[in-house]
From TrEMBL:
<keyword id="KW-0066">ATP synthesis</keyword>
<dbReference type="GO" id="GO:0045259">
    <property type="term" value="C:proton-transporting ATP synthase complex"/>
</dbReference>
<dbReference type="GO" id="GO:0046933">
    <property type="term" value="F:proton-transporting ATP synthase activity, rotational mechanism"/>
</dbReference>
<keyword id="KW-0496">Mitochondrion</keyword>
<protein>
    <submittedName>
        <fullName>ATPK synthase</fullName>
    </submittedName>
</protein>
<dbReference type="GO" id="GO:0042776">
    <property type="term" value="P:proton motive force-driven mitochondrial ATP synthesis"/>
</dbReference>
<feature type="transmembrane region" description="Helical">
    <location>
        <begin position="54"/>
        <end position="72"/>
    </location>
</feature>
<keyword id="KW-0812">Transmembrane</keyword>
<comment type="similarity">
    <text>Belongs to the ATPase F chain family.</text>
</comment>
<dbReference type="InterPro" id="IPR019344">
    <property type="entry name" value="F1F0-ATPsyn_F_prd"/>
</dbReference>
<keyword id="KW-0813">Transport</keyword>
<keyword id="KW-0375">Hydrogen ion transport</keyword>
<keyword id="KW-1133">Transmembrane helix</keyword>
<keyword id="KW-0406">Ion transport</keyword>
<dbReference type="GO" id="GO:0031966">
    <property type="term" value="C:mitochondrial membrane"/>
</dbReference>
<dbReference type="Pfam" id="PF10206">
    <property type="entry name" value="WRW"/>
</dbReference>
<keyword id="KW-0472">Membrane</keyword>
Length: 84
């Protein structure tokens, strides 16, 4: 299909710059992209008939990793003051 309609995984490396320049980076365009990604994720991993715990566990793992990365600098500074 046309380059702007292709998903990122189908774009060749040489076409990446052109593909990025066709993306809509306005707040409305970014919100639409996030909604499309969430709907795709929800349909594939959460809203399935014979689904397992994969979808929910991926969300929880992502949250744990994000939370750890937010708090890591705080913990690192605390240890530095405590021992040195």
């Amino acid at each position: 299909g046309p380059l702007p309609e292709r998903p990122l995984m189908e774009v060749r490396l040489g076409e990446l710059h052109t593909w990025i320049s066709t993306c809509d980076f306005s707040p409305q365009g970014l919100l639409g992209t996030v909604q499309k990604a969430w709907n795709s994720y929800y349909a594939k991993y959460i809203n399935v008939r014979k689904g397992g715990p994969a979808g929910i566990s991926m969300l929880l793992t992502g949250y744990c990793l994000l939370s750890y990365s937010w708090n890591y600098q705080h913990l690192k500074r605390y240890r530095w003051r405590k021992y040195h």
